[in-house]
Amino acid sequence: MEKLQRLFHGYRSIGFMLVMGVIMGVVYFCGDNSGIRFDVIGEAKMADDYSFEGCDLFNGSWVYDNKSRPLYREKECSFMADDYACQKFGRKDSEYQFWRWQPHGCDLPRFNGTALLEKLRDKRVVFVGDSLGKNHWISLLCLIDSWIPEPSHKVAEWHGSLITFRASVRDLEFNASIDFYWEPLLVESNCDDPVHHRVHDRIMKIESIERHAKQWIDADMLIFDSYTWWLEPNMTLLWGSFENPNRTSIESGRVRRYEMALKTWSNWLDTHLKRTKTKMFFISLSPDHKEGGDWGKPMGENCFNETEPIMEQGYWGKGTDTDLMRTAQSIVQDLEKKGIEIELLNITQLSQYRKDGHPSIYKRHWVPPTESELANPIPYSDCTHWCLPGVPDVWNEILYTYIRYKL
Questions:
Q1: Contact, 112 vs 405, CB < 8 A?
Q2: Residue 4 phi/psi, 5° resolution?
Q3: Mean of the pLDDT values across residues 398-406?
Q4: Which of 346, 345, 286 shows the shortest CA–CA distance to 317?
Q5: Is the predicted pLDDT of residue 9 greater than 80, yes or no?
Q6: Using omega within 30 degrees of 0 as the cis cutoff, is the peptide bond preceding 389 cis?
Q7: Residues 6 or more apart whose Cβ sits within 8 Å of residue 340
């Protein structure tokens, strides 16, 4: 903008100014209609004065906004996954895409994909977790994708449990990668296959993490999520190998086994992490909306056919396990005391309100629904994951705020 001002001051010709105004208008409207944001690379390097003072990013309200939302379009995202592509699979309403998170005391800064890539230049970012972590990662890729004009290079490469995303903009190579690593329980388990992990009897090697961790320990930024897979009522803890007939195994309560796995994770980080290099985030639990009775619907109903958020301030669903949240918070605080830089991003409350944001039946189903399920879709509705565009975009707006303005 300063360059344009200098040009205007240098040329006093009214004709010149009119021509420039027409050009700027054409660029603006063409860019808006195409759905692609052409960003000046220099903007990514500008100093910003965004302040966290007096700002509570995690408490606020959802505001309907069909002017600035959605931040991208489902069908235009090159990396959209069928698990989160709700309109592709028949969802007719689109209001869930138009809600903006308004924190108390401040506004979230505008997401800028090229500014983020500039901040991550020559760095490796890894999301580590389960399908909700992947939900979060895909959202970030879609946000960045909307800033990358064709035919710039962008690719996601699969390597077993690891998916690596790289992008360059207008022949500018950022040399940044944003990866996802499938690790639903953090420790080794019989659920580690990124495709074939739907097992009824979950078994975890509660003190083993090396095989996973060596895939992400060199990262400059790590973003962990681990919650949903711990809600199974019956899980077995294992000492020894899966194949060893003399192995020792026990069953334990939900909170206890979660604590043991997080301690294995934190101890490994304490021993192996390069404190001067790696920044870390731990994402708090993502709530589900499986019990419609929590917000006044008849018992037995859930997120199916929900089209509006819950507006009751401070709403808290009964299915959200606060004991697991406190356990994670305690472990994260212990890591901070050991000199490890880690932020707990508490996205739980803001996501609690969004009963309308789940795929329900509008997604790819690994097992096609039966005739009886089609007749009564409520029981097989997905009220855990999130449609995109949607709630995880806000998680990434908050993550972006920390990365760009606090690190």
A1: no
A2: -65, -40
A3: 93
A4: 286
A5: no
A6: yes
A7: 269, 270, 273, 275, 280
Amino acid at 26: V
Which of left, alpha, beta for 17 (phi over 0: left; psi -120 to 50: alpha)?
Answer: alpha
Helices and strands in the chain: count of H runs, count of E runs:
10, 13
Contact in structure between 393 and 80 (CB atoms under 8 Å):
no
Residues 6+ apart with CB under 8 A from 298: 292
Q: Which residues contact 330 (CB under 8 A, 6 or more apart)?
A: none
Q: How confident is the model at residue 47 (pLDDT cuts 50, 70, 90)?
A: very low
Instruction: Give me the helices (H) in 150-244, please.
Output: 210-213
Phi, psi of 195 (to 5 degrees): -110, -50
d(CA 321, CA 232): 12
**Distance in angstroms (rounded) separating the CA atoms of residues 328 and 350:** 18
Residue 300 has pLDDT above 80, yes or no: yes
> Which residues are part of the catalytic machinery?
131, 382, 385
Band of residue 19 on the pLDDT scale cut at 50, 70, 90: very low
For residues 36 and 44, give the distance between their C-alpha atoms in angstroms, rounded to a whole number: 17
- Two structure tokens written together for 354: 């969004």
| Count of alpha carbons within 13 angstroms of residue 333, beta-carbon side | 6
What is the average pLDDT score of the chain? 86
pTM of the predicted model as reported, rounded to 2 decimal places = 0.86
Residues in the chain: 407
Longest dimension (CA), the chain: 88
Find the helix packing angle between 254-272 and 322-337, rounded to 10°: 20
Helix (H) or strand (E) holding 156: strand 154-159
Residue 382 and residue 386: Cα distance in Å, rounded?
9
Q: Bridge partners of 344?
A: 282
Beta bridge partners of 202: 235
Do the Cβ atoms of 397 and 115 come closer than 8 Å? no
User: Residue 105 and residue 27: Cα distance in Å, rounded?
Assistant: 34
